[in-house]
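User: Please fill in residues for this 326-position structure.
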């Protein structure tokens, strides 16, 4: 099978990461990379690490002879782009923004978007024509909580602290993304009000209706480029062994989620589509530590995983990536 794929918003971080994965995917032919700001230039003028892999140029046109399009645009921009640039109904869409992730926003014109967390919605993803790819923080945090929700085991408020690399802020410069500010620095932001909380809550309620527990989330900006490390804890009567049993059973057929028998860190998963989870008990608190690459499992890798499922491929195709651990 050869899937003809296109990328819209190909000059940014997620566009570049999607490009890198698709260029090496054995079942994909990349037919166009769209960018208004870079039209006519070789993609290697922006993504220089792809030199020798492709001679494709950025375009401002949409190739209609495409099977699937990856929308790698900013939040609010995906919906605007589709309104201004109709994509043929037979072309599938995988959107990496938050524009179609929530129940009240998952329908646009005649397109219905399925929430694309494979470890939650795999059967629906396999039948879908349109996917709303999850957020990066949301992916890491949900993977740390889904087994508990599936066993109706979230009985108390959940406390989360998670740190993300600078690529999570996108390519556009801001005060808090400059090297001189970010390096040797750490800061919280959007305390208890991060936009990913809504999709996390919807997913948990899908498995444990009427959840009744608050999600207290403190996100941090980290002084590194890629990765997310999340620490999640809640009061629980579960033993460590019983909790591990829940996680091992839930993820036994999920190739990208591993229950680690050691302390988890970001370098173990950066440049992969993996999520490593560590389960601990500290007194009456159950602690889950999770790590992902925010650009791969948290964005482009998960998008390609969803594409694989939509087209009946092994979900690991093109995603058997090795981390750089040191």
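Assistant: Residues filled in for all 326 positions:
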């Amino acid at each position: 099978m050869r899937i003809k794929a296109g990328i819209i918003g190909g000059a940014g971080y997620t566009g570049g990461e999607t490009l890198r994965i698709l260029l090496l995917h054995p079942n994909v032919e990349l037919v166009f990379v769209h960018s208004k700001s870079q039209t006519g230039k070789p993609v290697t003028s922006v993504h220089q690490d792809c030199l020798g892999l492709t001679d494709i140029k950025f375009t401002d046109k949409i190739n209609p002879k495409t099977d699937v399009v990856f929308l790698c645009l900013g939040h609010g921009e995906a919906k605007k782009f589709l309104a201004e640039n109709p994509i043929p109904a037979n072309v599938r869409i995988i959107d990496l923004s938050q524009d179609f992730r929530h129940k009240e926003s998952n329908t646009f014109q005649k397109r219905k978007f399925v929430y694309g967390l494979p470890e939650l919605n795999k059967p629906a993803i396999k039948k879908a024509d349109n996917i709303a790819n999850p957020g990066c923080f949301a992916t890491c945090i949900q993977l740390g909580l889904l087994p508990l929700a599936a066993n109706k085991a979230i009985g108390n408020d959940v406390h989360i602290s998670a740190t993300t690399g600078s690529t999570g802020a996108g390519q556009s410069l801001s005060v808090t993304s400059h090297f001189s500010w970010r390096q040797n620095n750490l800061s919280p932001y959007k305390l208890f009000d991060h936009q990913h909380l809504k999709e996390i809550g919807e997913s948990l309620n899908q498995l444990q209706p009427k959840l009744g527990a608050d999600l207290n989330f403190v996100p941090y900006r980290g002084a590194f480029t890629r990765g997310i490390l999340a620490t999640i804890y809640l009061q629980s009567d579960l033993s460590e062994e019983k909790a591990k049993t829940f996680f091992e059973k839930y993820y036994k057929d999920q190739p990208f989620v591993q229950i680690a028998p050691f302390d988890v860190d970001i370098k173990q998963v950066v440049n992969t589509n993996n999520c490593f989870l560590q389960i601990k008990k500290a007194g009456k608190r159950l602690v889950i530590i999770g790590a992902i690459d925010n650009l791969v499992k948290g964005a482009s890798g998960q998008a390609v995983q969803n594409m694989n499922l939509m087209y009946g491929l092994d979900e690991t195709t093109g995603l058997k990536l090795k981390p750089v651990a040191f």
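For context: The CA atoms of residues 159 and 216 lie 5 Å apart.
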